[in-house]
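Table 4 source record.
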Amino acid sequence: MKRLTLLLALAALLLATGTALAAQEKNMVPCSVCGYLIPKDQALSTGYEGTTYYFCEAGCKAYFLQNPAAMAAGTDMDPVCGMTVKKAGSIEAVHNGRQLHFCANACKEKYFANPAEYEINYDVVSNEVKPQKELKYTATFEGRPYSFVSEANKIAFEKNPDAYIYAECPVTGKVFLRKDAPAKVVYDGKTRYFCCNACLEKFNKDPKKYSGPAAAGAKGCGDMGAKKEAGCPAAEAGGCPKAKTCGKK
């Protein structure tokens, strides 16, 4: 696990319930890794032990697949005290589009009194998790902000962003760093990355079929009736650096 796109690993109950109901009305689901709310029909997904898990981006999916049993345990970190809490039954709230879980109302109140004090982010180049206020160097890539601990890291990212950003194969659902994709194509104004040339060929035959997120539990290259090519990357063991802080102070 070396790098990832921008993500966070923070995921009155009355307030949370109201927010959750509003999200459901808009067909929103929380990312199973970082808690960001995304439209269900735009979320990436994977199946594990009969349950579908949703992700806001390929980086989160990569982290989940590294250890699905642990990620499916349903825990999160209280962003104020650092305590590990069970999502079910915790005190929930939503801030800046992300679902948060607290061990007590006191922590929730302390967070909302000064969110900037507790919000964290990470440097995708050095994999350092830091308070957002300490990440003083920023860059924007494909409309998304990235933060860094040093100017050198910002320069490294801007020189080769594909070395730090994950992609999902639209055919198989495998995730990998963009730089490791053996094939890619621009379709409908968006670059699609593939885990092997066989997937690219399948996509080109029916691009509309594969234009959305890959289906949960999608089959691998060897199950598609095409010969699996040497060098077709498997889902790389990577992950959201933010999630590594869960349960730690």
